[in-house]
Amino acid sequence: MSAITLHNSDYDRFDAWLHKIYESTQTNNWFMPSEDVISTGVCLRAHDGFFRVFPYENTALVPFEAAVRGLNPVVAVKLRNSATVAALAKLEPRETSIYIDQATRIQILESIDYLPQAEKDQCGAFIASALVLWSYALEGMIPLCRDFDEKLIKHIWHFMTGGISVLLQEYALDGDPRRFALLAALPIIYCVSLFFCLQLVGNLSLIFGPVAQYHENSQYYSAVRPEPNPEIDNNLPHITIQLPVYKESLELTIGPSIFSIKKAMQTYARQGGTSAIFICDDGLQLISEEDRKERLAFYANHNIGWIARPGHSSKPDGFKRAGKFKKASNMNYGLALSLKLEKFLAQMIADGVEEDPHDCLEDKAMRMAQEEIFEETGRRWKPWCANGKSMRVGEIILIIDSDTIVPEDCFRDAAREMGESPDVAIIQHESDVMQVAHHYFENGITHFTRRINKCISLGCANGEVAPFVGHNAFLRWSAVQDAAFVDPADGVKKQWSEANVSEDFDLALRLLLKGYTLRWATYSEGGFKEGVSLTVVDELARWQKYAYGAFAASFKVRETNEGLGCNEIIFNPLIKWWKDGPISPQLRNFVWSKAPVHYKIGMMSYMFSYYGIAAATVGSVLNYLLLGLAPQLDRFYLHSFEILLACTVVFPGIGNLGYTLLEYRLGHRNFIGAMVENLRWVPFFLFFFGGLSIHLSTALLAHMFSYDMTWGSTVKEVERSTFWIEVPRIWQRFKLSFIICFACIAMMVIFTTDAVPFQYQIPGWNWALIIPLSLTVGCHVLLPVSPLPLTLTCMHPV
């Protein structure tokens, strides 16, 4: 039996060679496995019959060392990088060798045990998903590895040209090189099709993949609530519930959320913990005097700490609420005052200031912090605030929205999990939906939200990095402060990015790059509930915000050493292209960061999916005109109807089948019931996703041309309305899409008539051209109208 190499302090020339060869040959390892399962390394002959292996003390390399001993070279290296994996992926079953170029043939062995019988003069062999290279001279090992890597890259590119074989065949026939200009579209095709390909693989995994991991805990996923821990249970941390609100109804929205939180706080108090509610109220200075008094009395009666900043002013010297979506700056404003409160409180305690029974130290510190902020603004804007004790931020923060229901017993579970996993910065709980109106549109969005959440749960159980959606999540306050940055806009240290629309993703990425873990939890079993959009307008605004934010902010990677950051984006605005180029450095920083590779691929596919949806209208119009008017098109061109068929198969086809089987295999629903439920919403998704294109295009173009778009808070309560009230609103909000759609309809009608010359007519029987464009136009026209009657019947009557 082979012995593993033990690490000791006797560092000699053989160790130096091991380190040098390893560092020179293993830097491009693709999978980046953890130390306990790493299976690549270097084996070096110290003297006859004795070999040393690096990394040291790695039992996974014992078979490799034994095989190398039988082969008996001076040095051998086991590699597993992207080039190796890509080359092996092209193999047919039972192949015994690979020709990586005309002069290089490399053997393929069934397992590492066959290495001693390999053809020694080839100095290389493919084994499983790895490549073993060996040399009979130490100095020749590193050049040999580099030479093989270059040859493998060329070999891979040779096979990748299969996608352009049509162009090569056509060039062989007519010799016209101009058609190769079409290759410029390949990067765009790759980016847009990435989400489609991942969805295909994901849907197939729902059908054929394992699901046992859904019920087990892992690094990024918690399916089972933590066990009792006496050490933690006897020292439960203080938990702050941070709640940003705006102009929502106190009676219908804020009040029910507070009552739900109070039940959880009572349970936590009986378990031995303490908690407090901290409200960042952006609407308090804007609502009527009567509503303001009602809110303040409510806050006082429930011991709620709160802060309210001045309203946004359009005047040059007025108060500015930073950000396109004001939630981030609202929370930063509250946290800034809380941090100042802590500073003054610590100073008073150090000075020996005694507690006043009528005026606690926390309230004194709060007023001092309030005055400092007032001075910093030139004595122009003084924050409103009250209840200093509840404004102190605890070790754990629970972020919720104003329309949220939380489980009665969830605080102690979070405390236990945070205590047992000090690297976890965020525990994001899977949320169910708190329905308000129960009308057709809300029911459709409810089904979509539950479906997305369940798929996220399975993805995290499979090892995907957990997302942070910005609410119903427990945050470690020390980690949030560790990932804070200095905003270059004003030089102030902040926790939430105000330049981002997707401030939650920005924080998650900063935490991830700091080495923290994000975790998705499902053991609350739907106890956390959130509201969804009640109208088409609100849901479209949400998607526009995501589209704008996905590219205007999502990859805002900061220089962590200096704490400085920039507000540039994946694609720079057009006006900056001449100086900075189209691609931002932040995207490059993200791609080359230490974030897991699968996380990068998944996030990139998600981001580029917005471009795929946005391009539907333009692509359908171009497809109609090109195929209808051009005398001929290169076969490299992919028709819209072919894309439509592929999307139909993958999304409503395999997607619904996969999700139905997932619910059945998890034991959540019976097969027939799940299938009926999923098929029931196919028309809804058809109209909704088919009608998104123009609206996402406007958001993406707004960013590209530096047009400022802002979004307010989502409507949380059902509004009373009638058909005659809604029709003018629909026309005003969807005027642009209606004009574009009716213009497309007129174009299709005109091209079928004698109004255009015969050679330019596009007859109505040419359904392969008509269907994609008609479907896109029809969905845009029907999107705001189709759910309207069913929605109005469930609204309060006027």
From TrEMBL:
Q: Which residues form the Glycosyltransferase 2-like domain?
A: 396-617
Q: Give the UniProt keywords, A-Z.
A: Membrane, Transmembrane, Transmembrane helix
Coiled coil: which residue ranges?
Answer: none
List where the protein spans the membrane: 179-198, 608-630, 636-662, 682-705, 734-752, 764-783
InterPro entries attached to this UniProt entry: DUF7928 (IPR057688), Glyco_trans_2-like (IPR001173), Nucleotide-diphossugar_trans (IPR029044)
What is one Pfam family matched by this protein? Glyco_trans_2_3
Keyword Transcription regulation part of the UniProt annotation:
no
Q: Would I find Transmembrane helix among this entry's keywords?
A: yes
Highest taxon in the source lineage? Eukaryota
Q: Which residues form the DUF7928 domain?
A: 12-158
Question: Mind telling me what this protein is named?
Answer: Glycosyltransferase 2-like domain-containing protein
From which source organism is this entry?
Answer: Asterophora parasitica
Q: Mind giving the lineage of the organism this protein is from?
A: Eukaryota, Fungi, Dikarya, Basidiomycota, Agaricomycotina
